[in-house]
Amino acid sequence: MDHFKIGAAEVVRIEETMVHFDGREFFPDLTESVLQEHAAWLAPFFDIPGFRMPCVFQSFVIRYGTLDVLVDTCIGNHKERPDFLLAHRLDTPYLARLHAAGLRPEDIDIVLCTHLHVDHVGWNTRLDNGRWVPTFPNARYVFSREEYARYAPENLVPGAPPPFFDVYQDSVLPIVESGQASMVSGEHALNEIMTVVPTPGHTPGHIGLRVQHDGRSAFFLGDAIHSPIQIAVPDLNSSFCEDQALARASRHRLLSEAADRGSLLVPGHFVAPHVGHVARDGAAYRFLPAGSNRGRAE
Predict the structure, then answer these.
(1) Domain tally for the chain?
(2) Over the stretch 4-50, which tens digit does the pLDDT of each residue have?
(3) What residue numbers bound the domain in which 49 lies?
(4) Which segment of 18-32, 223-237, 281-295 scores lowest on mean pLDDT?
(5) Is 294 within the bounds of a domain?
(6) Measuring CA to CA, how many Å separate 173 from each of 116, 131, 202, 231, 274?
C-alpha cells in the first residue's frame, strides 16, 4: 500500500529500490523445512524455491496536521559503498517520487532514522557541488543517542575500526554540523500522536515509532522485523542483528503489543502490500497482510 491512514494521520510510501538477498546468508538459522511449513502463505513474500528474500528499500512519510515526518531515508544517490555494492553509487529517482507524492524536501519537518545503517540514512544528505548537504533543509533529524554514541568515530574505543565510517562521514556528520541533529533517549514524544520507542537488538540504539490516533495505531519498525517469516518464527534473527538475544526480545515485545492492540505493523523492508497486522498463533503469530481478506488498513 502506497497510501494509508492511521486515524487522521496520512501515510505515504516512497520506494527507492528493491533487491533479493540470499536467504541462507540473511537468515543463517532458517531451514528449508521451516520455509515449506509456511509456504502456503509465505510464497508472495519469499522466493521459496530459490531460497531468496526480496527486500524493498523505502521511506514512509506521516502527514498529520501541518507536520510531515519522514521515517528512514534509504540508501541515497552517489554514495561510495564499494564494500556493499547494492548501495554503491546509486542513481535512483527517489526525490522525483517524493515530488510525485506531493512533497518537496523542504516540506519535511522531521526525519526519523530508526538506526544508522547504510540503507536507513542515505538520503539524509545529497551531493551539492562536491559537498554533502542536508537533503531536507528545514527538518529536525531525530537520532537515537545510544545509536549515535555507537557509531560516532569520536566515541569509539581508541584503535577500534570505525563501523560504517563512510556512512557516518557522508550521511550523519553533515547533519550534526548543520545543527539539525536531535538526539533522543528512551520513549520520546514527537507530538501528541507520535512517540519514539526503543527497540534495541538489531543495533544497540535501534528505535521505532508508535503512532496512535482516533482509536487506530501503527508501529514503524525499521529493521526490528525484516521479513514476514519472522512473524511466524519470532526467534529468527538476521545475520545483521548485533545483539541476537536483545533483537529477539524486542521482536517478541513488538509482536505481542501489535496483536493485543490491533496495531498496523510498518516494517522497513516488506514487499507489497508492505504493511499488515498480526494475530496470535500459539507461541508465535500470523501475518495478516493489509488489503487481504485477513488484514485491514484504511
Answers:
(1) 1
(2) 999 999 999 999 999 999 999 999 999 999 999 999 999 999 999 99
(3) 3-289
(4) 281-295
(5) no
(6) 11, 12, 22, 35, 31
